[in-house]
Amino acid sequence: MANPPLPNVVYIYGDDLGRGLLSCYGQTRFQTPNIDRIAAEGVRFTRSYGCVFCAPARASLLLGRHDCHAGRWSFTTAGIYQMIHTGEMAYDDIREVINNTGIQAAEDDVFLPQLFQRTGYVTGQVGKLEWGFATTPERMRRHGWDYHYGYYDHRMCHGFYPAYMFENGEQVDIPGNTRVDCGKNPTGDTPENRALRRDRTGKAAYSQDLFDDKAVAFLRENRSKPFFLYLPSQLPHGPIDVPAIDPAVAGHPELTEYEQEYASMVLRLDQSVGRILDELDALGLTDNTIVLFSSDNGHTIYYPCEGRTGTPQTTKAGEKLNNITTRFTTELCGDVFNGNDGMSGLKTTNWEGGPRIPYLVRWPGVSAPGSVSDHMFANYDLFATFAELLSQPVPPEKDSVSLLPTLRGDPQHQRKHDHIVYASFTHGGALVTDDGWKLRHIGVNDTCQLYFLPDDYREENDLADTYPDRVVELRAKLVDECEGDLANGHIGAHRPPYANEAVQDFISRPFTPEEAIRKAREMASG
What we know:
The protein is α/β, with parallel strands linked by helices. It folds into 2 domains: 8-421 and 490-524, Alkaline Phosphatase, subunit A (3-Layer(aba) Sandwich); 422-489, Arylsulfatase, C-terminal domain, CATH 3.30.1120. Helix content is 28%, strand content 14%. A 10-stranded mixed β-sheet has the order 7-6-5-4-8-1-9-10-2-11, sandwiched between helices. Strands 13-14-15-16 form a 4-stranded antiparallel β-sheet, covered by helices on one side. A two-stranded parallel sheet has the order 3-12. Strand 15 and strand 16 form a beta hairpin. The radius of gyration is 22 Å and the shape is globular.
């Protein structure tokens, strides 16, 4: 009897999408029906971890390694590709700088898409770049992508109207998009900022529309062969920008207009998910396609409003948070969306709200529809999961553990992590054990906090003084995961500069929205 065909895989990746923003995780201000469809037809995970920041999360996903290793992912400064727009550097020269600077993949590194290539799959990536803060076509090919379309520069990803994208290494101009800053808006809802958000100069084509069209084209072109399609969206990463407020939240009595715009970004992502699911249906591919949905890290605030919603580092009363004894909570800081699902902390912090992410998997005929799993896993576990599915070996240096038994409804045969770890931007690394103990390292004073998450969802009861032996035990494990140096648990340790003074000077130069609009108008007038 012939083996069944290997399934296609589509992985949709939100950006700064806290799980509390999805109605399948409890959002009440609006509904996300298409994302909820994946949960209703598959598995929803409740103890899934990404990283606290985008660059390490994407590297961990691709490499199957956590982000506390030294020199295993690249946090380079973004902005170099804007030098094409200003005429200060040619594309080929930019590629040479990036390809010879900073942290490079080791010769024997195996990336997630390479597993699929080795099994005869076509691999494609559409959207935000997947390694470091600037990439090149040489790197994309090295990582295992047969097809790629999107941004090559992280700073450009903070705007939604790119003057150009890259498709298989070729620069593709986007007619009508002429802003050097890709139309990036300022944060904050002042009258001045509101006017800048609504100024459509140089803003013709919204990036998510471009991504959706390319993703659908990839599905249609490869419908007769096995494929792995990775769709890293920019949404709902700020600054806030959406072509129009979604009718579902327009005039919402409990939301300001600024909050309605942010909610519309989440809803725009949901519509993108719906378009992919509908296309799989139309092509007859649904029954043989695994669809995954997750995010890089937890929630953050892009809609501060004085007296109503604080910033990621302040309460709604404007008081500064130190993220040691005080931290972001929905009540203290006034988050109308409860985007971190009631946890403490946000993106960049090693509170649970930083790395905890939504995770949904639909595998028709294999995963039980509407099921919920509390199995603890991390984004780097996808490597071993697909290696097992594809009968590929897992290199010994990987930190990845296969999820396949859980996805197949066989949890009794699921191997578990003793613990997972992740780095942070604000303090240091953290370690969470399978039975729920959590150690937070505080780098500024080299102390540790200890929490028992099953009884303390919001990390309010530090047990370090009560269980000093457990602190010693878990700290030793964290040191080991950080390769002997807890500094590797701080994201700043992974930031190599460009070895080029002209580039370094350029990327430290701010582009204000006013300046970008002025330049776009000059271009339009000839």
